[in-house]
Structures are given as structure tokens and as C-alpha cells.
Amino acid sequence: MYNKAMLIYNGSAGSNDIKASLAEAVEGLESYINELTLMKTLKKGDAETFCLERASQFDLIIIMGGDGTVHECVNGLIKLKESPPIFILPTGTCNDFARSLNIPLKIDAACEAFEETKMIQSDIGTVNSRAFSNFFGVGLITKASEGTNADLKQSIGKFSYFVSALQSMQQAAPFSYTLKTKEGIENDEAVMILAMNGHSLGTTSLYHEKSSLTDGLLDIYLIREAGLSLLKNLFNKVTSPTFPDEMEGIDYIQTSSFELEIKRKEEVDIDGEIYLETPAIVRIDQKTLPFLSFPIYQ
Prior knowledge:
28% of the residues lie in helices and 37% in strands. By secondary structure, the protein is α+β, with helices and mostly antiparallel strands.
């Protein structure tokens, strides 16, 4: 039982959907919380501000939204001396970090299973002083995110990301990069570089047998070329219960930190939000924030 909880929700979503989701959440969680405060975001940055300025007054933080709302909240909570436990009620398009925490993707199911949650101290990544819970990416991933039509996203949801990705692949050009890790320096070319803390991207599972939200390591994917080769590898990953030992055109490493330099500036995508550029200094901080989870992989 929690005494006081703050529920942060995205006020810019459709009003009917929000009202129904809120009613469902309040009804589903009322037996676990004595006092529930609702906080509606009206613009970018509100969720981060709510967490930074008010989270320490509560015993539980509930984030009702998608990956963007989670991203904002994480950037507020990470600045606190100590964060309250965090529970995600996924209402976004992909809900990738919620998937990594194995949270049911329907509000009623997540609330019904609430008493079964276990708290884990999840790793959190940082890039150039900004935090990310799920992933860091450059290259093809930013083109896919930027190319996602808002109306298409609203009407067909997660499939819009795959449509956009396929369109971006046709125009993907490799870039030259320098990657510095504790293990050494690599100079090469790629069309996309991903650093994953979570296990899901665009609803596609990228879970690797070595992956963990609590090990202090990032899973780095260096994608050398796009087109049919990348599609084949993604198909093999999605249809396989385990990660292929080798994937043509994709290298996999694990590291706790790295520096990335690219000859021409590239936009950076963190948790689906694009507002940073390379060069990038990236690290993972082990067991940083407490999330309520249904652990399978940890």
C-alpha cells in the first residue's frame, strides 16, 4: 500500500481517450493508494518539471503515457537525491521501455497485476548530460523517427514506424565514425549505431541473452548497411527465440561507456526524442532509478 502517489499523464492526447484511461487507472489502483494526485502535461518539459519539483513529496510516481513521457520523467527523476518507485502505465504507440519491464500493455491488465510487481534498480544512460532509459541512436533510426507522419502514427500506430523505416532504408547513406571505448578505438562506416539499455525498439524485441537492465552495460549494434540485408537480419531476430550468433552486416559489442565522433554532424535519437547532435559522450549508470517491473530477464 502506498500513501501518496503522483500520476503524470499526457494532456495533449485525445480528450476522450485520456478520460477513459484516467478513469480506468484510478479505479484499478485505488485499492493500492491512499491519496492520488493527477498532474496533466500541457507542453514539452512539463513532465520533467513535475518530477524534478514535486516527486520527492510522493511515495510512488505513476507515468501514464508513451516513451516520450517516460523520457521526460526520467530526466527529472535522475536529478533527485533519491527517486520514489516508478510505475509505467503504457498508453503510447510503442511503449518500448514498458515492454522491457514486462508491463502489460493494457491499463486494466497492468492495474490488475500491480500487486505482483517487483522493484528493480534499473540502469539509466546519459548522453551529453541528458538521460535515456531505453536507447541511444544515430543514422537510420533518426531518419525513420523524423519521417513518421503524425496522422499516420495516430491512425495505424506502431506500423507507421515500420513504413517510415522502410522508406528511410531506400535513402540510407553510410557515415564515417570513430568509436572510442575502454577496449579500444574503431574507425569504420555504418548506416546506424544503436546503444540499447532496454530490450525493445519500435515494438521489435532486441533482447540478447547477455542483456540486462541492471548490469551496467550497453548493448551496441553497429549496422553496416541497410536494404535487404538489414531486413533479413531483423526478420531472423523477430522469428527466433534467441539472438543469432552472427548477423551479416551487424556487429554487436557491450560496453559501459563510449565516445562517438562522426565527420559530419548527425542528429541523435534518445528514446524516440531528437534534440541532440554528435559528437556524443555516452555512459550507462548502474542501478540508478527504481522501477516497478514484472522481471523475466533480470
